[in-house]
Each structure stands twice: as structure tokens, then as C-alpha cells.
Amino acid sequence: MVGKTIGKQAVVIGASMAGLAAARALADHFERVIVLERDRLPEQAVPRAGTAQSRHLHVLLPGGQRALTDLFPYFERDLANAGAVLLRMSRDVRLEIPGLGPLPSRDFGWFLYCASRPLIELITRRQAERVTNLTIRPQCRVLEITATPDGTMVTGVIYEDADGRQETLAADLVVDASGRAAPTLALLRSSGQPAPDEIVIGVDLHYTTTTFVIPQDASTDWGGVATHPHAPERSRGGYLMPFEGNRWIVTLTGRLGECPPAEPDGFMDYARRLESQTLYNAIAHAERLGGFERYAYPASVWRRFDRLSTFPRGLLPVGDSICRFNPVYGQGMSVAAQEARLLNQLLKGRATKPDPLAGLALAFFSESLPLVEAPWNMSAVPDLVYPETRGERPADFENRLKYNRALIRTAMHDAAVHRLLAEVQQLLKPPSVLQDPAVDRLVQLELFQMRAEEHCLARHSFG
Ligand SMILES: Cc1cc2nc3c(=O)[nH]c(=O)nc-3n(C[C@H](O)[C@H](O)[C@H](O)COP(=O)(O)OP(=O)(O)OC[C@H]3O[C@@H](n4cnc5c(N)ncnc54)[C@H](O)[C@@H]3O)c2cc1C
Fold first, then answer.
1. How remote is the CA of residue 19 from the centroid of ligand 1, in Å?
2. Beta partners for 301?
3. Distance 332 CA to ligand 1 centre (A)
4. Does the predicted model carry a pTM greater than 0.85?
5. What atom of ligand 1 comes closest to residue 19's alpha carbon?
6. What phi and psi, each to the nearest 5 degrees, are found at residue 173?
7. Residue 106, exposed/middle/buried by CB under 10 A (0-12, 13-18, 19+)?
């Protein structure tokens, strides 16, 4: 604990990535932090029921990795010691863009720690367990958030323990990291307070995942592959990454009714019909380890807590409870970690106020807005390219798509632009860095070139 505490006890609902990171931030400012998790928490890096997504490929973007290391200084070291595979993201991960080919392999100097989602969570949990005033209580399901009769001031939670006993826990601050914000929304509803608007992008995305032993003759040209779909004509995507134990995790994706098969022949056939043969060739003769796991992801949801003008004192939703991003872009864990780092800074700045918790949630929603908005825009705009995707298209949608395409084309031949683009996509820098006039000039040239190519194509098709 550092400096003055601003409360006796904080309670966190959920011991997944957002809950653990937030708990670490709170431990600097409260005498005690208690994390309540409904699942039994495994001693090994294995999936658990409360995080069904943990059976699928997870990439921890460098921006999130840095935030986790700021919160837990030994995070990277311990993840590497536990077997994470270190890659240089833009050099070693082959990003295949339909119609353009792979982005050139360039080393920008930062590492990607490739590990299974259960290992990332286990290592994070082990770090949290070392924090002396932080306790994780597994098999404790929160039933409701308690508050004053008008619901404007939260007093704690009621939970059910492993023996089915109901307990009440007092808290100065309750952080809802339950993934769907169900306890928060229930409190708002029951006390007649306004609920946040929800922006929903219906993507109807399907994941099928399995794992392989990395063959001895695996390509040394790349360490991981992302073969993006040829949108909007086709939705088949394929992603392969190494993880602990000399293994590859391979996730195939499809959208809007296209569902990658969960049996050997169908899976391989689907991989063969991706936009490039890189992934298929890699796994064609590799030894498959497990069965096939499926995940259906109907929609991305952003709860606009930032638009509310009132919010109960002593309550704060974080992570997926605020925003569930399309998982294909690998942003959720990173945004949760960055939010926790911001929460720590915010609490530090408020410690000397007479009532540091008054208005905390609204301040947090407003200051964390850029952390959510940037990745949301990066994933929502490309998702809307499919005509069947449900959601409101921005007025300048077509222009944005063309601009993004021109930006990627610029990055293909300009290493400095590639670096900036990678920094933004990997959540190391805000998108505003791409508004640099020098970058814009290059992109405008590329747009001009694209128009010339379209014109040429149109003339040819008229014979
Ligand atoms: C298929 C898929 C792939 C993904 N891939 C990536 C990726 O590559 N990179 C990335 O960064 N992110 C990825 N994500 C997103 C990432 O998993 C989440 O953003 C991340 O786990 C943070 O979520 P969270 O902690 O807010 O919520 P969750 O992970 O949903 O965890 C919520 C926790 O709260 C517990 N809980 C719920 N209700 C209660 C209750 N009443 N009482 C007590 N405990 C409760 C649950 O058991 C669980 O442990 C992916 C998601 C999916 C679905």
C-alpha cells in the first residue's frame, strides 16, 4: 500500500483479467481488497467455466502487456519463465492482408509474449496473490450489490460461498469485473436509476480452435500467422500462434452463418480455403493434440456509462462489463489492464480530496473513454464492412474504409508509417499519432493511386 488510504475495504466481483488488474490498482489505496470469484480457481493453466473464451487463441497486445507490467513488475519475467514464447510482433507474426499480401517483416523492437489464455491469467493471479492486502476468494458468487434504499450509495455485496451460505460484505468501493455488468445493471434497474445506452455491433462471429505440436520442420520465416478474410465477399479467417509447451493454437473464424467445422476433415478443408495457404501448409502434417472447441460471439457491446450524468457512489464497472470488443482484434485483456492502470492514477490524484470516492465513477468513465474508443473504432469500422453486420454506420463510412486501406498500403512500403500503425493497433499509442500531416500526405498520395487503379480497371472492363 502506498501513501494515504482512501477507504477500508474494496470488493472486486470476478477474478479474471479485469478483476485481477483492478484489484492490484485498488490495493495501493484501500486497507483491504477482496476479490470474489464464482469459479473454483485452478492451480494449473487450464480453462475454467467462468471464462469459456479461455480455450481459444488469445493475444496479449504489447500495450496491455506494458500496463500489466506497470501493475505487476514481475509479470513479463514470470510469464516468460512459465514458458511463454517471445516474438517480435511486426517481424515474426505474418499479417496477411487480402489483395495486398503479407505486411513486410520489420523489427520495431518490442516483444509479444505468446501464451495460452489460462497461463496469462494464472501468472496474473499469482502476482495478485503476492500483494499482502489483497485476498482472492474462489467459489464465492455475488448475488447482489447492496446500497442505500435510493440506490445512490453502494454499501457492499451479498454473496454465496461454496457451501451455499449467504454472506454480506461491506465495501467502500465495489468494482464490477463480472464481464457482463449484470450486478451493476440489476442495481440500477432495482433502484430506478438510469441504465447506460448500449451500442451493439451484431457480428455473428464463430470460432473453432484446436492445438498442434509445433513440427520440427516448421517455417523459420515466421512465428505466428494471421490470415484475414477477404471482406466483404468472404468471412473466413485463420490465426495461428505458438504458446507454452512447444504448441500452436489455431483458431479459424467465420461470420454471418459461416461456421468453421469442428471435426478434422472439415477443419483442414476450411483452413485450405483461407485467403492464403500459409496456415494450411503449416498444420497439414502437424500432430493435432486436442479436440475442437467452438465459441459463438453474436455481438460487440459498448455500454456507454460515460454518457450518464449520475452513477451510484462506491460502484465501478470495468473491463468487459463496460465494453466487449470483437475478440478477433485481441483487445479486451489489454484495455482492461490499461483501465486498471488509469484507475490507480486516478485514485492517487484523488487521495487528498475530502471525499475521494465522490464522483469517482463519472471521472473514471470520462478519463477511460479514449482507452475504449480507440480500439472500438479500430474493430467496429472493419466489422461494418459486411452488409449483414448489424450496427449504425458512421456518415463517412466509405471514406474511412478507403482511408484505412490507403494507410495499410502506405505502411507496406513506408517503414515509419508501418511502425506508427503497429503502435496504434497494438495499443501503445493513441490513433491521433496517425493524424500527423506528413503521414496524411503519404496516405493522400496512396488514395490518388488507388483512384487511378480503379479508373484503369473500369476502362478495361468496358473493353
Ligand atoms: C473467443 C474470445 C477470444 C478472445 N481473444 C482475446 C485476445 O486475443 N486478446 C484479448 O486481449 N482479449 C481477448 N478476448 C477478450 C478477453 O477474454 C476479455 O476481454 C478479458 O478476459 C477481460 O474480461 P473481464 O475480466 O472483464 O471479464 P471475463 O473474462 O468475462 O471474466 C469475468 C469473471 O467474473 C466472474 N463472475 C461473473 N459473475 C460473477 C459473480 N456474480 N460473482 C463472482 N464472480 C463472477 C467470472 O467467473 C469470470 O471469472 C477474447 C474473448 C473471447 C470471447
1. 9
2. 200, 324
3. 8
4. yes
5. 25
6. -140, 130
7. middle
Residue 381's pLDDT is 81
Question: Predicted confidence band at 458 (pLDDT cuts at 50, 70, 90)?
Answer: confident
pLDDT band (50, 70, 90) for residue 456: confident
In short, whether 16's Cβ falls inside 6 Å of ligand 1 is yes
Q: Which three cell numbers stand for residue 128?
A: 495478485
**CA–CA dist 130, 118 (Å, integer):** 19
Cβ of 62 less than 6 Å from ligand 1: no
Distance in angstroms (rounded) separating the CA atoms of residues 134 and 27: 6
Q: Average pLDDT of the chain? A: 96
Closest CA to 398 of 450, 441, 354, 350: 450
- Using most ligand atoms within 8 A of CB, pick from 178, 249, 253, 339 the residue to mutate for ligand 1: 178
Site to probe by mutation for ligand 1, drawn from 333, 338, 339, 371 as the one with most ligand atoms within 8 Å of Cβ, is 333
Tell which residue, 51, 123, 72, has the closest CA to residue 340.
72
Residue with cell 498442434: 212
C-alpha 385/C-alpha 392 separation (Å) is: 11
Peptide bond into 229 cis (omega under 30): no
Backbone φ and ψ of 340, nearest 5°: -65, -40
Residue 4 has pLDDT above 70, yes or no: no
What is the mean pLDDT of the segment spanning 62-76? 98
In Å, how far from its chain's centre is CA 65? Answer: 11
The rounded Å distance from CA 125 to ligand 1 centre is 14
> For residue 48, how far is the Cα from the chain centroid?
18
For ligand 1, atom 11, the nearest C-alpha belongs to 333
